[in-house]
């Protein structure tokens, strides 16, 4: 870790951090990253410095190092608001490197910490929208990755099944010849029969593509959609009137107007309750239909 050969000096670390902030605000991400790195060398146990440097690294697209810094920050067991930021940054770097499974786990932790911040009224509550978007992006990319693997395996499976039928055909013909029944007409009959089986198998696979999951008209069920943004819900909460919204969208609405979107009666964040059954249903739908993120 940085700072092993530098005497600890929190005051100098703060000075470097402030200079780094000015560079960052001016768009000088290289300068900011160097100053944040220097700050860490003076105070390697301050987790906030790691999130500052990681933010600069994300701007510079230096994603592997951003992952390392985020993990170092998390290992320091920072307070919830900083841990939230570190997991959020870690997920951003992981998804940028096309590691959707790892990114989704990190984003879920960030989202969980953000919900806790919402409950206690912490600063992290402001991140609920971007974190929700990131979780959905990770879910979509993970689904796309699995879908690509499934589609790649389909021709391989078809070829294996066809090869199996061809082996059965040749074995059958060998038996006929061994028993002295291998007349040309009988062998041709066997070949025609197996040709029909192979053709039927190929048609079955073709129909699976047209009438199966790929051929279905993609539609998101109404119960899965948020009535404010009309997007698929990730973390549904229910109001006093029994209407469910995604947590991020209803919170954005309450910032503008502390009223129920449906009845216009007074509504506070404290009045919202998790809709766990709907959340589980939405998660299952998204896992099987990752395309719905862009609905």
Automatic annotation (TrEMBL):
Domain U-box: 219-292
Entry keyword set: Isomerase, Repeat, Rotamase, TPR repeat, Transferase, Ubl conjugation pathway
GO MF annotation, one: ubiquitin protein ligase activity
GO biological process entries: cellular response to misfolded protein; positive regulation of proteolysis; proteasome-mediated ubiquitin-dependent protein catabolic process; protein polyubiquitination; protein quality control for misfolded or incompletely synthesized proteins
Stretches forming TPR repeats: 13-46
GO cellular component: cytoplasm
Catalysis: reaction(s): S-ubiquitinyl-[E2 ubiquitin-conjugating enzyme]-L-cysteine + [acceptor protein]-L-lysine = [E2 ubiquitin-conjugating enzyme]-L-cysteine + N(6)-ubiquitinyl-[acceptor protein]-L-lysine
Keyword Cytoplasm: no
Gene3D superfamilies (alphabetical): Tetratricopeptide repeat domain, Zinc/RING finger domain, C3HC4 (zinc finger)
Signal peptide: none
PANTHER family hit by this protein: E3 UBIQUITIN-PROTEIN LIGASE CHIP (PTHR46803:SF2)
Protein name: U-box-domain-containing protein
């Amino acid at each position: 870790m940085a700072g092993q050969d530098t005497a600890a000096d929190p005051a100098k670390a703060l000075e470097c951090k402030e200079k780094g902030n000015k560079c960052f605000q001016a768009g000088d991400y290289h300068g900011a990253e160097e100053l944040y790195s220097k700050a860490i060398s003076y105070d390697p146990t301050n987790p906030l410095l790691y999130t500052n440097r990681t933010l600069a690294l994300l701007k510079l697209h230096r994603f592997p190092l951003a992952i390392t810094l985020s993990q170092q920050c998390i290992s320091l067991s920072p307070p919830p608001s900083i841990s939230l930021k570190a997991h959020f940054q870690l997920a951003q770097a992981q998804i940028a490197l096309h590691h959707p499974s790892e990114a989704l786990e990190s984003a879920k932790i960030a989202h969980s910490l953000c919900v806790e911040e919402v409950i206690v009224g912490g600063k992290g509550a402001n991140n609920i929208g971007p974190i929700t978007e990131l979780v959905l992006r990770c879910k979509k990319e993970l689904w796309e990755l699995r879908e690509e693997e499934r589609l790649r395996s389909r021709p391989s499976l078809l070829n294996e099944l066809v090869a199996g039928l061809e082996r059965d055909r040749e074995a059958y013909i060998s038996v006929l010849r061994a028993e002295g029944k291998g007349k040309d007409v009988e062998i041709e009959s066997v070949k025609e029969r197996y040709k029909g089986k192979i053709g039927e198998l190929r048609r079955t696979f073709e129909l699976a593509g047209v009438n199966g999951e790929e051929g279905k008209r993609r539609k998101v069920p109404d119960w899965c959609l948020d009535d404010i943004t009309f997007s698929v819900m990730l973390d549904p909460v229910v109001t006093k009137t029994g209407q469910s919204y995604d947590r991020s969208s209803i919170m954005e609405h309450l910032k503008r107007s502390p009223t129920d979107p449906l009845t216009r009666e007074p509504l506070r964040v404290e009045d919202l309750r998790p809709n766990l059954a709907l959340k589980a249903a939405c998660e299952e739908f998204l896992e099987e239909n990752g395309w719905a993120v862009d609905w």
